[in-house]
From TrEMBL:
Residues 15-270 form the Endonuclease/exonuclease/phosphatase domain. It comes from Pteruthius melanotis. The chain crosses the membrane at residues 326-347, 353-378. Pfam families: Exo_endo_phos. The lineage of its organism: Eukaryota, Metazoa, Chordata, Craniata, Vertebrata. Belongs to the neutral sphingomyelinase family. It is found in: Membrane. GO terms for biological process: sphingolipid metabolic process. This is sphingomyelin phosphodiesterase.
Amino acid sequence: MEGEPTLRLRIFDLNCWAIRYLSKRRQERVRLIGDTLRREGFDLVLLQEVWSERDYSDLRVKLAGCYPFSHYFRSGVIGSGLCVFSRFPILDTLLYQYSLNGYPYMVKQGVCWVGSRAGVSVGITAPLLSFSLQLHAEYCREKDAYLPHRLVQAWELAQFIRHTSKAADVVLLGGDLNMHPEDVGIRLLRGWTGLRDAFAEARRFEGCKNGCTLVPNNCFTDKAELLPFPLGIRIDYVLYKAISSFTVKCDELKTTTGPAPGTDIPFSDHEAVMATLHIQRQGQPVGATLGTADLALADVVTEARAEVGVGLRAAQRQRYSSGRMAVLALLLLLLQAVAALGILAGLGTEQPFPKLSFCLLAFLALGVLVLATGLHLFHTMEVKILHGTEDQMWMALRALQERP
């Protein structure tokens, strides 16, 4: 950006939902995404849930002429799903993994195994810090068991942005935050970092009503999940802020509205978000600020800390239950070992239990011991992380309250 008084930056953000062998019409949708990106010529493309590296490779080859710089963030058992395409040089990349990311025994949701994460790419000559990310999904709003984990992720992301963006001129964040605009997690993230919402700041908007990105008329969307929200929900965001001697304004924000042009299917179960930002250099550097009044931010931190505390107490109960189960399984194994030694010592004594039943019970007890021990270790880690985050929030809250 050196030498350029202004820059119009066009951003494309999409949760692709591209899982090999599972996603409906995946190859066709990936091809449509590639055709659209090549035709529209965005400056920066942020994609999530591109689980197949082959899909990324196909896109990279297809878009090489328009986006000479790209990066795929590798993480988790099957990948991070995050990738970035850019018309400008990507000077550096970094993958930050959240310390909590759901429960490993929730196999159906599987988020713990792929790992929600924040991918960071730095580029455009002068430092422009861009984040492509995804937070843990909600699944059930009434009984959101993952809310404490998502708040830990939002807090870690906010801290990460504050500590890594000091040398940047402009910070851009795009991705599926899995939070409604009024949720405590999004308020915590925006309040603590000073990031501004492109939807709220845009001079012109075109797309789904209220900027919703998960809408019921999308053929890939689970209609039952959106019954309480007939218009849909907005969980995909483009957030931004200027830090040094730049100003950033959102000239235009768009979302896709259903099927891709000339087809009968949309790009994904999420609508894409497209933002046009106007970046301008100004005379004097502007110092970084939190972006909200300290008292309002203190209320948000207090609310978030209370929710993390609820998760902490739940994790402590689960740790106790799994530990007790492990002890009981160990006692059962010891009793069986004593019985087996007694039989071996008294050669003339007849075995009181059928051999097969005795072995099956031993294997069952061993399996329960291994499973319960693993759960106990996981919940012990969860307790420590939640407790640590609660302490960090308390320190931040005290600092906010003590400011003159």
